[in-house]
Sequence to fold (338 residues):
Amino acid sequence: MCSIAYSFLVFTECKGESSQYSDSVYKELSRLNGRINQMSKVAIVSRLKRLKLSSEGNCDVLKTRLKNYYKKQKLKSANLPTAVKLLPYYVIVDFEATCEGVNVPDYPHEIIEFPAVLVSTEQQQVVDHFQAYCRPLVNPTLSGFCMELTGISQEEVDAADTFPQVLKDFEAWLAKHKLGSKHKFTIVTDGPWDMGRFMYGQCKISGLAYPQFAKKWINVRKTFSNFYKCRRFSLKLMLEHLELNFEGRPHCGLDDARNIARVLLRLMSDGASIQVNEHIHLLALEEKSKVSNKPEGVVVPVTASNPYTIAVKVQQGCSQDAHSTILSHSDEDSTSLM
Ligand code: AMP
Ligand code: MG
Fold:
Protein backbone atom coordinates (compact mmCIF):
# COMPACT_ATOMS: atom_id res chain seq x y z
CA MET A 1 0.00 0.00 0.00
CA CYS A 2 1.37 3.41 -0.91
CA SER A 3 1.94 5.94 1.83
CA ILE A 4 0.52 8.76 -0.27
CA ALA A 5 -2.92 9.88 0.69
CA TYR A 6 -5.08 12.27 -1.22
CA SER A 7 -7.58 14.83 -0.05
CA PHE A 8 -10.02 16.57 -2.31
CA LEU A 9 -12.28 19.43 -1.48
CA VAL A 10 -15.43 18.90 -3.45
CA PHE A 11 -18.31 21.26 -4.11
CA THR A 12 -21.50 20.29 -5.84
CA GLU A 13 -24.41 21.99 -7.47
CA CYS A 14 -27.96 20.71 -7.46
CA LYS A 15 -30.54 22.15 -9.82
CA GLY A 16 -34.26 21.87 -9.18
CA GLU A 17 -35.78 19.55 -11.76
CA SER A 18 -39.12 18.57 -10.25
CA SER A 19 -41.51 20.56 -12.47
CA GLN A 20 -40.56 18.81 -15.68
CA TYR A 21 -41.52 15.44 -14.16
CA SER A 22 -45.26 16.09 -13.85
CA ASP A 23 -46.25 14.09 -16.96
CA SER A 24 -48.10 10.85 -16.16
CA VAL A 25 -45.44 8.88 -17.99
CA TYR A 26 -43.10 9.55 -15.07
CA LYS A 27 -45.61 8.05 -12.62
CA GLU A 28 -45.84 5.02 -14.84
CA LEU A 29 -42.05 4.77 -14.99
CA SER A 30 -41.81 5.06 -11.26
CA ARG A 31 -44.25 2.13 -10.83
CA LEU A 32 -42.32 0.14 -13.42
CA ASN A 33 -39.04 0.81 -11.63
CA GLY A 34 -40.60 -0.40 -8.39
CA ARG A 35 -41.60 -3.66 -10.09
CA ILE A 36 -38.11 -4.10 -11.59
CA ASN A 37 -36.62 -3.62 -8.12
CA GLN A 38 -38.70 -6.59 -6.93
CA MET A 39 -37.58 -8.87 -9.79
CA SER A 40 -35.06 -11.68 -9.28
CA LYS A 41 -31.82 -11.70 -11.27
CA VAL A 42 -33.04 -14.72 -13.25
CA ALA A 43 -36.22 -12.89 -14.23
CA ILE A 44 -34.30 -9.76 -15.23
CA VAL A 45 -31.80 -11.75 -17.31
CA SER A 46 -34.61 -13.54 -19.13
CA ARG A 47 -36.41 -10.22 -19.82
CA LEU A 48 -33.19 -8.61 -21.09
CA LYS A 49 -32.54 -11.58 -23.37
CA ARG A 50 -36.06 -11.35 -24.73
CA LEU A 51 -35.45 -7.68 -25.47
CA LYS A 52 -32.14 -8.64 -27.13
CA LEU A 53 -30.17 -6.57 -24.62
CA SER A 54 -26.90 -7.57 -22.96
CA SER A 55 -27.34 -9.65 -19.80
CA GLU A 56 -23.77 -9.10 -18.59
CA GLY A 57 -23.39 -7.43 -15.23
CA ASN A 58 -24.46 -7.82 -11.64
CA CYS A 59 -27.97 -7.21 -10.35
CA ASP A 60 -27.56 -3.39 -9.96
CA VAL A 61 -26.32 -3.13 -13.52
CA LEU A 62 -29.05 -5.34 -14.98
CA LYS A 63 -31.82 -3.48 -13.15
CA THR A 64 -30.48 -0.13 -14.36
CA ARG A 65 -30.25 -1.45 -17.93
CA LEU A 66 -33.83 -2.67 -17.90
CA LYS A 67 -35.17 0.50 -16.27
CA ASN A 68 -33.40 2.66 -18.82
CA TYR A 69 -34.67 0.57 -21.69
CA TYR A 70 -38.27 1.17 -20.58
CA LYS A 71 -37.56 4.81 -19.76
CA LYS A 72 -36.29 5.40 -23.30
CA GLN A 73 -39.27 3.57 -24.83
CA LYS A 74 -41.91 5.31 -22.74
CA LEU A 75 -40.46 8.80 -23.13
CA LYS A 76 -40.16 8.30 -26.87
CA SER A 77 -43.75 7.18 -27.23
CA ALA A 78 -44.91 10.12 -25.08
CA ASN A 79 -42.88 12.45 -27.34
CA LEU A 80 -40.76 13.56 -24.41
CA PRO A 81 -36.99 14.13 -24.60
CA THR A 82 -34.93 11.19 -23.36
CA ALA A 83 -32.57 13.64 -21.60
CA VAL A 84 -29.42 11.61 -22.18
CA LYS A 85 -26.52 14.02 -22.50
CA LEU A 86 -23.55 12.84 -24.50
CA LEU A 87 -20.65 14.51 -26.28
CA PRO A 88 -19.63 13.43 -29.79
CA TYR A 89 -16.14 12.36 -28.66
CA TYR A 90 -14.45 11.24 -25.46
CA VAL A 91 -10.69 11.07 -24.93
CA ILE A 92 -9.73 8.70 -22.15
CA VAL A 93 -6.39 9.44 -20.49
CA ASP A 94 -4.62 7.31 -17.90
CA PHE A 95 -1.14 8.53 -16.96
CA GLU A 96 1.58 6.38 -15.47
CA ALA A 97 4.11 8.22 -13.33
CA THR A 98 7.38 7.70 -11.50
CA CYS A 99 6.83 6.27 -8.02
CA GLU A 100 8.37 4.34 -5.16
CA GLY A 101 6.87 1.41 -3.28
CA VAL A 102 6.47 3.77 -0.36
CA ASN A 103 6.21 7.31 -1.73
CA VAL A 104 7.80 9.86 0.62
CA PRO A 105 5.71 12.96 1.25
CA ASP A 106 6.42 15.56 -1.49
CA TYR A 107 7.40 12.86 -3.99
CA PRO A 108 7.48 14.68 -7.36
CA HIS A 109 5.61 12.26 -9.60
CA GLU A 110 6.61 12.71 -13.26
CA ILE A 111 4.51 11.36 -16.10
CA ILE A 112 6.29 8.50 -17.86
CA GLU A 113 3.45 7.23 -20.06
CA PHE A 114 0.92 9.45 -21.81
CA PRO A 115 -1.80 7.29 -23.36
CA ALA A 116 -5.15 8.33 -24.79
CA VAL A 117 -8.03 6.42 -26.34
CA LEU A 118 -10.55 8.15 -28.60
CA VAL A 119 -14.18 7.01 -28.34
CA SER A 120 -16.74 8.09 -30.92
CA THR A 121 -20.28 8.32 -29.58
CA GLU A 122 -21.80 7.93 -33.02
CA GLN A 123 -19.81 4.79 -33.78
CA GLN A 124 -20.02 3.54 -30.18
CA GLN A 125 -16.43 2.34 -30.33
CA VAL A 126 -12.77 3.19 -29.91
CA VAL A 127 -11.64 4.85 -33.13
CA ASP A 128 -8.00 5.72 -32.42
CA HIS A 129 -5.38 5.91 -29.71
CA PHE A 130 -2.26 7.88 -28.80
CA GLN A 131 0.64 6.57 -26.75
CA ALA A 132 4.01 8.03 -25.85
CA TYR A 133 6.51 7.41 -23.09
CA CYS A 134 8.09 10.43 -21.41
CA ARG A 135 11.64 10.77 -20.06
CA PRO A 136 11.55 11.94 -16.44
CA LEU A 137 14.09 14.59 -15.42
CA VAL A 138 13.78 14.94 -11.64
CA ASN A 139 14.09 11.19 -11.06
CA PRO A 140 15.53 9.91 -14.37
CA THR A 141 16.12 6.40 -12.97
CA LEU A 142 12.91 4.43 -12.52
CA SER A 143 12.56 2.52 -9.25
CA GLY A 144 12.32 -1.26 -9.50
CA PHE A 145 8.85 -0.92 -7.99
CA CYS A 146 7.74 1.50 -10.70
CA MET A 147 9.03 -0.72 -13.53
CA GLU A 148 7.37 -3.76 -11.97
CA LEU A 149 4.07 -1.88 -11.43
CA THR A 150 3.81 -0.21 -14.84
CA GLY A 151 5.76 -2.64 -17.05
CA ILE A 152 7.70 0.37 -18.37
CA SER A 153 11.47 -0.19 -18.77
CA GLN A 154 14.38 2.18 -18.18
CA GLU A 155 15.30 1.85 -21.87
CA GLU A 156 11.80 2.95 -22.93
CA VAL A 157 11.90 6.16 -20.91
CA ASP A 158 15.59 6.84 -21.76
CA ALA A 159 14.69 6.76 -25.46
CA ALA A 160 11.59 8.92 -25.00
CA ASP A 161 10.99 12.65 -25.41
CA THR A 162 10.48 14.77 -22.34
CA PHE A 163 6.97 15.79 -21.31
CA PRO A 164 6.75 19.17 -23.14
CA GLN A 165 7.34 17.49 -26.52
CA VAL A 166 4.94 14.66 -25.72
CA LEU A 167 2.26 17.16 -24.72
CA LYS A 168 2.77 18.94 -28.08
CA ASP A 169 2.47 15.59 -29.89
CA PHE A 170 -0.73 14.83 -27.99
CA GLU A 171 -2.18 18.24 -28.86
CA ALA A 172 -1.25 17.62 -32.52
CA TRP A 173 -3.12 14.30 -32.30
CA LEU A 174 -6.18 16.12 -30.94
CA ALA A 175 -5.87 18.66 -33.77
CA LYS A 176 -5.56 15.87 -36.38
CA HIS A 177 -8.98 14.62 -35.23
CA LYS A 178 -10.31 18.21 -35.14
CA LEU A 179 -11.03 17.73 -31.45
CA GLY A 180 -11.64 21.02 -29.72
CA SER A 181 -12.20 22.76 -33.08
CA LYS A 182 -14.79 21.09 -35.35
CA HIS A 183 -15.70 18.41 -32.78
CA LYS A 184 -16.52 18.80 -29.11
CA PHE A 185 -14.81 16.37 -26.76
CA THR A 186 -14.04 15.86 -23.11
CA ILE A 187 -11.26 14.11 -21.27
CA VAL A 188 -12.30 11.03 -19.28
CA THR A 189 -10.27 9.65 -16.39
CA ASP A 190 -10.63 7.01 -13.70
CA GLY A 191 -10.59 9.19 -10.59
CA PRO A 192 -9.43 12.80 -10.13
CA TRP A 193 -5.66 12.18 -9.91
CA ASP A 194 -4.68 12.05 -13.58
CA MET A 195 -5.39 15.73 -14.06
CA GLY A 196 -5.60 17.02 -10.47
CA ARG A 197 -2.28 15.51 -9.52
CA PHE A 198 -0.17 14.09 -12.36
CA MET A 199 -0.93 16.65 -15.09
CA TYR A 200 -0.85 19.53 -12.63
CA GLY A 201 2.40 18.38 -11.00
CA GLN A 202 4.08 17.64 -14.33
CA CYS A 203 3.21 21.09 -15.73
CA LYS A 204 4.76 22.64 -12.63
CA ILE A 205 7.92 20.57 -13.05
CA SER A 206 8.13 21.36 -16.78
CA GLY A 207 7.33 25.05 -16.28
CA LEU A 208 4.31 24.79 -18.59
CA ALA A 209 0.98 26.54 -18.34
CA TYR A 210 -1.76 24.11 -17.37
CA PRO A 211 -3.46 23.06 -20.66
CA GLN A 212 -6.96 24.26 -21.37
CA PHE A 213 -8.28 20.83 -22.44
CA ALA A 214 -7.31 19.37 -19.04
CA LYS A 215 -9.18 21.91 -16.91
CA LYS A 216 -12.38 19.87 -16.81
CA TRP A 217 -13.05 16.22 -17.29
CA ILE A 218 -15.32 13.28 -16.62
CA ASN A 219 -14.40 11.18 -13.61
CA VAL A 220 -15.88 7.90 -14.80
CA ARG A 221 -16.09 6.52 -11.24
CA LYS A 222 -18.65 9.20 -10.39
CA THR A 223 -20.65 8.69 -13.56
CA PHE A 224 -20.64 4.95 -12.88
CA SER A 225 -21.72 5.15 -9.24
CA ASN A 226 -24.43 7.74 -9.97
CA PHE A 227 -25.84 5.75 -12.87
CA TYR A 228 -25.74 2.20 -11.44
CA LYS A 229 -26.54 3.46 -7.92
CA CYS A 230 -23.53 1.86 -6.30
CA ARG A 231 -20.43 2.89 -4.36
CA ARG A 232 -17.44 4.45 -6.12
CA PHE A 233 -15.35 1.63 -7.45
CA SER A 234 -11.83 1.23 -8.81
CA LEU A 235 -11.49 0.29 -12.48
CA LYS A 236 -11.11 -3.37 -11.55
CA LEU A 237 -14.32 -3.30 -9.52
CA MET A 238 -16.28 -1.37 -12.16
CA LEU A 239 -15.33 -4.07 -14.66
CA GLU A 240 -16.30 -6.78 -12.18
CA HIS A 241 -19.65 -5.07 -11.65
CA LEU A 242 -20.19 -5.26 -15.41
CA GLU A 243 -18.97 -8.90 -15.42
CA LEU A 244 -16.11 -7.94 -17.72
CA ASN A 245 -12.50 -9.09 -17.34
CA PHE A 246 -9.63 -6.61 -17.44
CA GLU A 247 -8.07 -6.89 -20.90
CA GLY A 248 -4.30 -6.44 -21.08
CA ARG A 249 -1.94 -5.44 -18.29
CA PRO A 250 -3.17 -3.43 -15.30
CA HIS A 251 -1.06 -0.25 -14.79
CA CYS A 252 -0.02 -0.17 -18.43
CA GLY A 253 -1.50 3.26 -19.15
CA LEU A 254 -2.82 2.37 -22.59
CA ASP A 255 -4.42 -0.86 -21.36
CA ASP A 256 -5.94 0.99 -18.39
CA ALA A 257 -7.34 3.60 -20.81
CA ARG A 258 -8.75 0.91 -23.13
CA ASN A 259 -10.50 -0.73 -20.18
CA ILE A 260 -11.89 2.61 -19.02
CA ALA A 261 -13.21 2.98 -22.59
CA ARG A 262 -15.00 -0.38 -22.23
CA VAL A 263 -16.69 0.89 -19.05
CA LEU A 264 -17.60 4.15 -20.82
CA LEU A 265 -19.09 2.33 -23.81
CA ARG A 266 -21.16 0.16 -21.49
CA LEU A 267 -22.44 3.27 -19.68
CA MET A 268 -23.31 4.77 -23.06
CA SER A 269 -25.20 1.75 -24.32
CA ASP A 270 -27.03 1.44 -20.98
CA GLY A 271 -28.30 5.02 -21.41
CA ALA A 272 -26.17 7.08 -19.02
CA SER A 273 -25.62 10.81 -19.50
CA ILE A 274 -21.86 11.24 -19.73
CA GLN A 275 -20.87 14.80 -18.94
CA VAL A 276 -18.14 16.81 -17.24
CA ASN A 277 -18.31 16.24 -13.50
CA GLU A 278 -15.02 17.65 -12.23
CA HIS A 279 -12.75 20.57 -12.93
CA ILE A 280 -9.48 21.73 -11.53
CA HIS A 281 -9.44 24.72 -9.23
CA LEU A 282 -6.13 26.20 -10.31
CA LEU A 283 -6.32 29.29 -8.15
CA ALA A 284 -6.77 27.20 -5.04
CA LEU A 285 -3.83 25.04 -6.05
CA GLU A 286 -1.62 28.09 -6.60
CA GLU A 287 -2.56 29.39 -3.17
CA LYS A 288 -1.69 26.04 -1.57
CA SER A 289 1.66 26.08 -3.40
CA LYS A 290 2.50 29.48 -1.96
CA VAL A 291 1.51 28.50 1.55
CA SER A 292 3.56 25.30 1.43
CA ASN A 293 6.64 27.36 0.40
CA LYS A 294 8.01 24.66 -1.90
CA PRO A 295 10.55 25.65 -4.55
CA GLU A 296 9.16 26.16 -8.05
CA GLY A 297 8.87 22.94 -9.96
CA VAL A 298 8.23 20.64 -7.02
CA VAL A 299 4.84 19.03 -6.77
CA VAL A 300 2.90 20.01 -3.71
CA PRO A 301 1.78 16.62 -2.51
CA VAL A 302 -1.51 15.89 -0.88
CA THR A 303 -0.63 13.50 1.85
CA ALA A 304 -1.74 12.53 5.30
CA SER A 305 1.20 14.53 6.68
CA ASN A 306 0.32 17.53 4.53
CA PRO A 307 -3.13 18.88 5.33
CA TYR A 308 -3.31 21.01 2.19
CA THR A 309 -6.00 19.93 -0.18
CA ILE A 310 -6.21 19.91 -3.93
CA ALA A 311 -9.44 21.65 -4.75
CA VAL A 312 -11.45 19.96 -7.43
CA LYS A 313 -14.77 21.59 -8.19
CA VAL A 314 -17.46 19.17 -9.10
CA GLN A 315 -20.48 20.04 -11.16
CA GLN A 316 -23.28 17.59 -11.28
CA GLY A 317 -27.03 17.43 -11.42
CA CYS A 318 -29.31 16.53 -8.57
CA SER A 319 -28.13 13.02 -7.84
CA GLN A 320 -27.73 10.72 -4.89
CA ASP A 321 -24.36 12.17 -3.95
CA ALA A 322 -25.08 15.81 -4.70
CA HIS A 323 -23.69 17.20 -1.49
CA SER A 324 -20.53 18.85 -0.27
CA THR A 325 -17.91 16.32 0.67
CA ILE A 326 -14.36 16.34 1.84
CA LEU A 327 -12.72 13.17 0.59
CA SER A 328 -9.80 12.21 2.76
CA HIS A 329 -7.18 9.51 2.32
CA SER A 330 -9.51 7.03 3.95
CA ASP A 331 -12.17 7.45 1.25
CA GLU A 332 -12.46 4.71 -1.32
CA ASP A 333 -11.58 7.10 -4.13
CA SER A 334 -8.27 7.92 -2.57
CA THR A 335 -7.11 4.57 -1.29
CA SER A 336 -8.02 2.63 -4.40
CA LEU A 337 -5.44 4.51 -6.44
CA MET A 338 -2.59 2.97 -4.60
P1 AMP B 1 -2.64 3.53 -12.24
O1 AMP B 1 -3.37 4.38 -13.24
O2 AMP B 1 -3.49 2.87 -11.23
O3 AMP B 1 -1.79 2.57 -13.00
O4 AMP B 1 -1.69 4.49 -11.43
C1 AMP B 1 -1.09 5.64 -11.95
C2 AMP B 1 0.20 5.92 -11.22
O5 AMP B 1 -0.07 6.00 -9.81
C3 AMP B 1 1.28 4.86 -11.36
O6 AMP B 1 2.04 4.99 -12.54
C4 AMP B 1 2.11 5.16 -10.13
O7 AMP B 1 2.93 6.27 -10.29
C5 AMP B 1 1.05 5.50 -9.09
N1 AMP B 1 0.66 4.27 -8.36
C6 AMP B 1 -0.37 3.45 -8.66
N2 AMP B 1 -0.42 2.41 -7.80
C7 AMP B 1 0.61 2.60 -6.95
C8 AMP B 1 1.10 1.88 -5.80
N3 AMP B 1 0.52 0.76 -5.37
N4 AMP B 1 2.18 2.37 -5.17
C9 AMP B 1 2.81 3.50 -5.58
N5 AMP B 1 2.40 4.24 -6.62
C10 AMP B 1 1.31 3.79 -7.31
MG1 MG C 1 -2.91 3.42 -15.11
In short: Residues 59-77 form the longest helix (19 residues).
